[in-house]
Amino acid sequence: MDQLSDRQLGIAYWWLTHQEQLRRVVVGVLIALNVGMWGATLFFGVRILLKESATQTAVETLSQSLVDVPGYIARHPIFPLTVGPVLAIPSFGGNREDLVVEITNQNTDAVAVVRYRFHVGGLEGSAVILPQETKLITEFQSSVQETIAFTVFHTAWRRLPNYQMLREDRWGFSDQIDATYTPAGTNGSLVSRVHFVVHNSSAYTYAHPSFVVSLWQGATLVAVNRQTIDALASGEARGVDVSWPGSLPQPTSVRVDPDVDITDPVHSCKEST
Q1: Least confident residue range of 21-25, 53-57, 96-100, 225-229
Q2: Using one digit for the tens of pLDDT, what is the confidence trace for 91-144?
């Protein structure tokens, strides 16, 4: 049997005399590690909860400050439409008249969708009146009546707080469209004609846009017509002719009003691809 050296005997003796102390040290270290881990978990858990609570509070505060719907409505009331009188213009072809009513929407951020009725045979129609738009509502070739009335019997309003930005993006017509009037008899023609060029400078295509053409002698309306054309693509310019059979009173001015619902990206105003 090999004899143990003094060094080995010393190590064995130290182990026997300090074994209990070493166990206590190991247990203490394990307890400390466990407490530290649980403490760290608790600390970070509380911190996350406090951060989420602060974030939620900030979001609620931000939402309340940015979307104050009652306050916005109170500061921006909707003004009613201004409806003018019914104008009856003699129409070519017998005992007929063209009926015209001017409707103005003075609001800056509200679109009016109206249903109206000419009290001539119960004729009804609908129209979209954009913010700050004046629109001529027409009914052509109506039977002559002694009394003609017009009623807007339903108006639905749509708020568009960003309408001015939307208009800048989607409205591609100039504020005033130049037009040329040629009376009947010119070069032997039997019709009176208005010619104008429309240019779509927006990034959108207009599906079947309409144009209401009205002839004026000073402030008096002497003739009106409407022309609908095929889709007008982004960047496209196109000449349009509108005619009336026979002679008309000589106008002093010609007005061309585009009729396009730029708030309808599905049916009227589609972004070009």
Answers
A1: 53-57
A2: 876 678 889 999 999 999 999 999 999 876 667 899 999 999 999 999 887 776
Amino acid at 264: D
Residues 6+ apart with CB under 8 A from 250: 183, 217
Residue 223 parent element (H or E):
strand 220-228
Token pair, residue 7, equals 């060094």
- What is the pTM (predicted TM-score) of this model? 0.71
- DSSP designation for 144: P
The long-range contacts involving 109-112, CB below 8 angstroms and separated by at least 24 positions, are 109/76, 109/159, 109/160, 109/161, 109/163, 109/164, 110/78, 110/157, 110/158, 110/159, 110/160, 111/157, 111/158, 111/160, 111/163, 111/263, 112/81, 112/155, 112/156, 112/157
